[in-house]
Amino acid sequence: MTPNILPDGRANALGAVWMVSAMALFAVEDSFIKAASQTMPVWQILMIFGLGGALVFACLLLREGLPLFIPEVVSRPMRIRVVFEVSGRLFYVLALALTPLSSATVILQATPLVVVAGAALVFGERVGWRRWTAIFVGMAGVVIIIRPGADSFSPLSILALLGMIGFAGRDLASRAAPAAISTLMLGLYGFLSMALAGALYAAWQPEVAVWPSLRDAALLMGAIFAGTVAYACLMRAMRTGEVSAVTPFRYTRLIFGIALGIALFGERLTAPMMLGSGLIVASGIFILWRSRKVAEGSDA
Q1: Cα separation of 105 and 262, whole Å?
Q2: Of 65, 112, 137, 180, which has the highest C-beta tally within 10 A?
Q3: What is the rounded distance in angstroms from the CA atom of residue 299 to the CA atom of residue 8?
Q4: How big is the chain by its Cα radius of gyration, in Å?
Q5: How buried is residue 137: exposed, middle or buried, by Cβ count under 10 Å (0-12/13-18/19+)?
Q6: % the chain with pLDDT above 70
Q7: Ordered alpha helix ranges (H), the chain
Q8: Mind giving me the DSSP string for 246-261?
Q9: Positive or negative: CA dihedral 173, 174, 180, 181
Q10: What angle do CA 246, 255, 89 make, to 5 degrees?
Q11: CA-to-CA distance for 183 and 235, rounded, in angstroms?
């Protein structure tokens, strides 16, 4: 992709549009998967969705004249990435199937907080007390949403938390991935990891496969389409404008996820969810702001 040559203001505005579009499509993907899980086994959804998305990225790589495999794919960071990708995908899809879409979406928004904490602990990146405080505040928001110990607590809500940790580990491993691996290749092996997650879950929790109805086939095709286009929009967003100006719009996924949960699945927005969401979003945006200040030469 050619570098962005738009003025900063226009580039940032265009990047924000791409980012919001990506988050809306990711929320649509989640809602399609949740709807399909009402009539299909989770392992089958994971395998069909994973193989379908992998096929799309394989075609994109071939169109660009790029190989489908290079030796760096089996490097140690990539092997670690697959482990986290499998766990993240599996637990998040289980959370979509078994818990409200809105709560799963909200908990997922804590991923950047865990990534920052992991970067400090694993890669030795400098994170000062302000950002550590924001991380703890954001994780407190997650606890408020899950509400362990409350009468309404459901152990199933832990699934979204485990999925979020898996995605954070995947993102950290991606930082250490060899530079020779393109974003399209990461997408290919990310979706193949989803298919692997489905196979592993089928071995652990065997369920009889069902022949997809027209409704199920449409939902899965819609999920594959929404997921791959969302990924393309996300890549375009991160290459248009300044990262610090575009990244905060990731949190619009929360709005779309809650709206679709209410409109399509009859979910309710509770006070703890609103409070927890506010803490997560505020913490994430503060960390982004502090990271930019640090990059400009301020303290951590």
Answers
A1: 12
A2: 112
A3: 25
A4: 19
A5: middle
A6: 93
A7: 8-36, 42-63, 76-98, 101-108, 111-122, 129-146, 158-176, 183-204, 214-238, 243-246, 252-265, 271-295
A8: HGGGGGHHHHHHHHHH
A9: positive
A10: 80
A11: 8
Residue 91 is which amino acid? F
State yes or no: pLDDT of 24 exceeds 90.
Answer: yes
**CB-count burial class (<10 Å; 0-12, 13-18, 19+) for 70:** middle
Token pair of 78 as six digits:
């990539």
In total, the chain counts a number of residues equal to 300
Query: Does the pLDDT of residue 299 top 80, yes or no?
Result: no
Calpha distance 230→24 (Å, rounded): 8
**Which tokens is 189 given?**
């092996």
What are phi and psi for residue 126, nearest 5 degrees?
Answer: -80, 120
If you write DSSP's letter for every residue of 141-157 in order, what string do you get?
HHHHHH-TTSTT--GGG
Residue 298 has phi, psi (to 5 degrees) of: -80, 180
The confidence score (pLDDT) of residue 147 equals 82
| C-alpha 56: how far from chain center | 18
Residue range 121-153, pLDDT digits in tens: 988 888 888 999 999 999 999 999 988 766 556
Two tokens, residue 217: 């086939």
Cα-based angle 184, 242, 6 (whole degrees, multiple of 5)? 90
* 8 Å CB contact between 290 and 130: yes
Please enumerate in sequence order all residues whose Cβ is within 8 A of that of 19, keeping only pairs 6 or more positions apart, or say none.
233, 234, 237, 246, 247, 249, 250, 252
